[in-house]
Amino acid sequence: MNLASGQELPEQTYTVTRAALVRYAGASGDFNPIHWSDRVATSVGLPGVIAHGMFTLALAARALDTWAGATGRVREVSCKFTKPVVVPDDDTGVEIVVRGTVKNVTDEGVQVSLEVTCGGEKVLGMPKAVLRA
Amino acid sequence: MAVDATLKGRTFPPTPPYAVSEERVLEFARATGSTYDGNAAPATFPIVVAFAAMTALMEDPSVGISLHRVVHGDQRFTYTRPVVAGDILTATLTVDSLRQMGGADIIGTRSEITDADGRPVCTAFATLVHRGEEA
Q: Do B74 and A79 count as a contact with CB atoms less than 8 A apart?
């Protein structure tokens, strides 16, 4: 890993489909029906089935591994869940775009600020991470 | 109904030990498209243990939370070391903060995740937003 302060990290794009949500539900143990049932999602005022916030954060962490060039380098990762990612019931799904900027590099670690968007809108609030130096 | 006002500062019993197997890590890595090379589990994998601790809090009848009114407000993980297959993890949740805002209870939780020797692995901070009846 050779990350320098101020560096813009290569944008990562990931596709999220309904099938991916079902798979994530099983892997994570989060079976909240708002992530797989339109009926339940709309009954609580959502436009439709939404992705698990933690699934979107997992995609941000996936981008961090890619930029770090290795797994296990994330020392800290955080975000606010500000806007739901609505995933349509089709074969195309939606695209999540993860961008990152290196804020600071010290002996303590590499601070990365993230931007996670769907359809051009930010879906996570203040996503950021620290990678092992 | 608001949640129990004495909730702040309360620590819940540790979750049952969770044995991290290669298969579970691989399943999580595949579900998120992450790389797993047999070493570190994906960074957000510990949510499986933290989620169990949060579920125990939300399902505790003395707390007064209606599950369908809860929204995950934010999440932060800090790691002492990555999770690896073979770990046996336990999460112990403490309610760090409790405040009311616009008819909602804002519950700040901290789950300390430790290994079989009781050594720290990671800490998961989550804010749960419990919307009131009118919200």
A: yes
